[in-house]
Amino acid sequence: MRPDDPFDDAVTARAVIAADGTLTQWSEGARLLLGHRPEEVVGRHAAELLADSAGPLPLPEDRWSGTLVLRHRDGGTVSVWVLAHHRQPSGDGPGEWLAVTPLEATDYDLPDDPLVRKAVFQSPCATMVFDQALRLRGVNDAMARLLGLPADHLRGLRPTDIGGRPQHSELERQLRHVLRTGRPHDMQTHMKARAESHAHAWLARLAPLTDRSGRVRGVCVTAHDFTEQFRARERLQLVNEASSRIGTTLDVTRTAQELADVCVPALADFVSVELLEPEEGGDETSGRLSPPVSLRRVAQQALAHDAPTGSAPVGELVVYPEDSPQADSLAAGHSIVASVTSGDLDSWLSEDETQARRIEKTGVHTILSVPLQARGATLGVAAFARSSQPEAFTHDDVLLAEEVTARAAVCIDNARRYSRERETTLTLQRSLLPRSLPRTAALEAATRYLPAARSGVGGDWFDVIPLSGMRVAMVVGDVVGHGIQASATMGRLRTAVRTLADIDLAPDELLTHLDDLVLHLSEEAAGDSGPGEVGATCLYAVYDPVSRRCTLSRAGHPPPVVIPPHGSALHLELPSGPPLGLGGLPFESAEFELADDSVLAFYTDGLVTSRERDAGQGEALLLEALSGASGPLDETCDRVLNSVLVPGGATDDVALLLARLRGLPSSQVATWDIPADPALVAPIRKQVLDQLAAWELTDASFTAELVVSELVTNAIRYGAPPIRLRLIHDATTLICEVSDTSHTAPHLRRAKTWDEGGRGLLLVAQLTQRWGTRHTTEGKTIWAELVLADME
Fold first, then answer.
1. Which residues form the PAC domain (predicted)?
2. pLDDT greater at residue 93 or residue 652
3. Which of 259, 368, 438, 527 is the most exposed place for a label (fewest CB within 10 A)?
4. Could you tell me how far CA 235 lies from the centroid of its own chain?
5. d(Cα 513, Cα 256) in Å, to the nearest integer?
6. 11 CB contacts (<8 Å, ≥6 apart)?
7. Mean pLDDT of all residues in the chain?
8. 781 Cα distance to chain centroid
9. b vs e for 652-678, b when ≥16 Cβ sit within 10 Å of the residue's Cβ?
């Protein structure tokens, strides 16, 4: 009995006594039973109430029940069944008597029907009978064995007196319901016999007992033990729960934590999951392991906040020596159950005093260690410990733990393989993306790349490519799909774009060649089952800082956003163009004149589209985040990602490229129209030298004079008028350009010993950093680039 048990003191005769036997409390029920008022007995020795005052006073160390003969106030005697116990667990506090009921007959006798009594007390099922006051009036032998008390000692008890468990409180509530309604009721409950360590599951039938007039006078409770079926159902439920809760993500740590969460408290009071460190090269360990074994704890769960099987926090490397359950199970390759009470852990705990103190403090009595194995590889070990649950691990528990752990091991192995492939793909993609952006006089750029949070690394890319004449190309693309194949395709397309940009193709022509390449890649990827799945979108733009004009073309890609120096962000209206890989459809270009300090924003659709919203909402957020982008571009990139991306990360790859445009001042550009007369080359060289002196670039005069002379002479001899010479310079570079209306491009060749010509372009190539030819709608331009630092 406990002080919080639901007794009605007006009915129950209760007396509380101190350790010395002095009565300290006397209930109203005790007064009705024995006639003594509280003020007459409180403070007196309880032994004085015994009919035989010389008899012993039941003050047990824990609990005592039996019959006593007590003296009534009028001098008579009353035989009662008494339950006595100590209130305090330590046994130092006062004791308590509970006179449950007189043993004489009362008005609550059950009907004396021989058939009822035979059905109740001779039934092979565990049976007990309660009267209208919910007093236990009789039990058969099967029920007495179940409750662990003699039948005579059980008479007069209430349901909560049998053990004080919450299940018995529910039993009392259901008994009252049957008494009130007169209808039978079925319920499930758990009861534990004193001789057993674990509770049994019972299916109880509560049937009303009536007299001849049909009046309900009591309730008959018949219990059927279905513990095995109940436990089988619990095991099946745990396996089903494990299949739905473990492996919800492809994250190793979270999957291990899901295993621990599922098994506490259904299977154990504490669960830890520890994994082997991957071997060099990423290979998993196969076969059995010899102790000592180093494992990294990745997850744990406990009923209490303190982990009972070890003080190692999540993430720490733990070394298990020989004779520890974890090392032994990995060495044996199968599950091991170790009992503290049986001495299975003595050798291990004698060497690890910290572990021994911790196990003793938390009361762990059994540890079950199960290896994590999947696809022939050993991943680690899961340890299950019991402390609050008094039962040791049974054979069925071991089978259940192995079933759940096997499912988790496959999920952990899948997560590891996915993580390894994702890291490989991400490494590949990072190697294919530009490590740093080139510094050019035409623009300042900043970029961001984010792999998809859930679907894996894709084929998004960006690039900034310096072109001739101080121009610069900007490109953003998106390959369909995810994984290594998409990253590899992205690398091939980025290389192709750089190659095509190097020959100065117009944006629409470049996309046409890129479309042909994607068609070829699709044919290569095609199998016997059908066409390949290669596809991509792309946006290509070329900005000329001299004219401050930008030419753009796109292939199924989102249009760029422009942010004027003093205005709001808006989309540039471009012809959409088909995605790459369709073939046969043309691409169109559009040209815009952009003011200095304008910002162009290029992005992939992963930034503005998601499952939670449509592209229109994302684009509105993007325009809002880009408006007023006058600060540093890196800060603008971060603001865009924080404002536009949905919580939890992007569902697709995100590539973002911001470029602040800078026009070249007219003072850094000089242009001359060249007559088609070789005799006038000398005056042109003089004008070039004067211009270099005005620019304070006299160190480059000799080389520049030779280059200009060769290019102009070559244009006069082989080109078509009109001919134009242009010099462009910035802080580090001087560019010489000669344009004419002929479409014939010169080729570099090595002249033979007796040839009088053919050495001009070879000389230009030797004297300059780089040179080349670009075709225009009017003809061609031959250009050569000198690095001013080399001229000093």
1. 185-238
2. 652
3. 527
4. 27
5. 49
6. 29, 133
7. 81
8. 57
9. bbbbbbbbbbbbbeeebbbebebeeee
